[in-house]
Amino acid sequence: MKRLFSILAITGLMTFGNVQAQDSTQAAAPATEQVADTTATEATTDEAAATTTDEAVAEEVTFTQGMKKRFIEGGPAFMGIVLICLILGLAIAIERIIYLNLSSTNSKKLISEVEIALNSGGVNAAKEVARNTAGPVASIFYQGLDRYSHGLDSAEKSIVAYGGVQMGQLEKNVSWISLFIALAPMLGFMGTVIGMIEAFDQIQSAGSMEPSLVAGGIKVALLTTVFGLIVAIILQVFYNYITAKIDSIVNDMEDASISLVDMLSDYSKK
C-alpha cells in the first residue's frame, strides 16, 4: 500500500511539474514572439532608412554625374565654346556688379553737404567735399565746381559732358554680356543642326533607318541647344540686374546735376 501511495505521489508530482512547464512555455512563447516581431520591425525600419539614405545619395550622385555626362555627350567643340561664354559672361557680370555697388552714393546727403560747404566756405570748400567723396555723382560735382570760375554756362556744360563720360564708365563691358547671351543659344542651335546632319549621314551610310542610331544622334545634337539656353538664361538674369542698377545711378546723376546747377545759380546771384 505504501508503495502504491509512493508511486501515485511521484506520478502526481511529475504530472504537476509537466503542467507547470507547459504553462511556462506557453506564457513565454508570446513574449518571445513579441520580441522577435519587435526585432524584425526594427530591422525592417533600419533597412528602409538605409535604403532611403542610399537612394538619396544615389539621386544626388546621379544628378551631378548626369550633368557631367550630358555635357560630355554634347561634344567638346560646341559645348566647350558654350562653357567659355558662361565663364566670361559671369566674370564680366560680377565685375560690373561690384563696380556699380561701389559707385552707388547717397546723393541727397552729398547735395546737402555741398550746399552747406558752398554757402559757408565758397566754391573751394564745396570742391573739397566733392573730392573726398567717392562715386560718379561726386566726380560730376567736382568737375562742375572746378569750371565755375569760367562762368555758370561753362560749369553747366562741364557737368553735362562729364556726366556722359561717367555713364560710359558705368556701361563699360556690358555689351559683352549681351553678346554672350545671344551667342550661347546660337552656338547650341548650330551644334544641333550639325548633329542632325551627322545623324542623317550615319543613316545614309547604314542604308537603313534604325531607331537606336537616329535617337543617339538626335540626343547628342539637342544637348548643345539645352546647355546654350541654360547659359543664356543665367546671363540674362545678371544682365537685367546690371541694367537696372545703371539706370538707377544715371537717374541719381541727372537729379544731382540739376540740383548742382541750381545751387551754383543761386550762389552766383549773391
Mean pLDDT: 75
Based on CA inertia axes, which overall geometry fits? rod-shaped
Strand runs, count: 0
Poorly predicted regions are 1-43, 53-58
Strand fraction equals under 5%
Cα(first) to Cα(last) distance is: 149 Å
Structural class: mainly alpha
Helical fraction equals over 70%
- Major beta-sheet overview: none
Number of helices: 8
Order of helices and strands: HHHHHHHH
Radius of gyration: 41 Å
Task: Describe this structure as you would to a colleague.
With 270 residues, this protein is an all-alpha fold. Helix content is 91%, strand content 0%. The chain has helices spanning 2-73, 76-103, 107-121, 123-131, 136-146, 152-170, 174-206, 211-268. Helix 2 packs antiparallel against helix 7 (174-206) and helix 3 (107-121) packs parallel to helix 8. The longest helix is centred in the first third of the chain and has 72 residues, at 2-73. Mean pLDDT is 75; it is low at 1-43 and 53-58.
Layout of helices and strands, plus pairs?
Elements: H1 2-73, H2 76-103, H3 107-121, H4 123-131, H5 136-146, H6 152-170, H7 174-206, H8 211-268
Helix pairs in contact: 2-7, 2-8, 3-4, 3-8, 4-5, 5-6, 5-8, 6-8, 7-8
